[in-house]
Amino acid sequence: MIQMLKKFYPSVRTLPSNTSNLPLDYTWFQTEQGEVVGIHQNELTEKDQALLSAFLTKYHVNLPLQTEREKLWRKRLGEDDKERLEEINSPFRFVYFQIRQGHVEPDIFKTTIQEFFTGPISILWHNEYAGILVEEEISQLEESLSYAQISDTLMSELYIKTAFYIGPFLNSLKDIVTYSNILSEQAPSSFQSHDSPVVTFIEDYPFRLIKNLNKQKKIQLSSWILKEFTEDKEALQTIQIFIESNLNLTEASKKLYMHRNSIQYRLDKFHESTGIDVKQFEQAITVYLAILANMHKTE
Questions:
Q1: What is the DSSP secondary structure assignment for residue 95, as one 8-state letter?
Q2: 202 Cβ partners below 8 Å, 6+ apart?
Q3: Where is the PucR C-terminal helix-turn-helix domain (predicted)?
Q4: Which of 27, 35, 87, 154 is 20 to 30 A from 115 (CA-CA)?
């Protein structure tokens, strides 16, 4: 389709993944296959538009107008590192978000998400269903609120399925382009690796480390550490939850709906068979990485 259109309209281009800086002098159409293409308005007469509309559907990119603060952040992200001389007086962080496509209009999402913050929140949209929230001193989460609570509220009250990937707080604008790019690259895949709709960069990095291992090394790590437990899903789930519960039996029993003694029995059995005591922090780290390697050893 695109190649055919290019014979008549040389400016034809596909819709980029980041639609926040789309050229205003393009008209966009969607094919029957769902592909979105744009044609420069200088190449389109009224007759052309009528003809194209007969077999293509007009496509409207519907993003909220940018606030002055959002324009400032766009400018910061567009500058070269050597040109970025401005200093900031307070920490900030980027939070990547992703909405289930078709669940809500961007304008409505922006109005809704604003209710959870103390001041105007800047949103740097990538497209109509994903982007970055800029959390600053003037726009912090309301007291006692978490992104997990926001995600639950959006789903339970408005049926908006939203996932968040929370980056670290920074005190400098240096390397914010790299910061933004890393979050935007890692977030979508991390949502597939984690069961929770909210993932922090701290929680995600162990997964990143394991994914960088080749298949052979994942199998090696899991078999050497976990031994015969590589196929014991119940035992590994118990150990994983125990580690994620800060090695706290009481907390793990609540999450697993299991008696403390049952958890202790599985931990003791693992210790007896492998010689590894997951109640010791240094050993628990290695076991946790081995469990992740075992989960992803076929990838």
A1: E
A2: 168
A3: 236-293
A4: 87
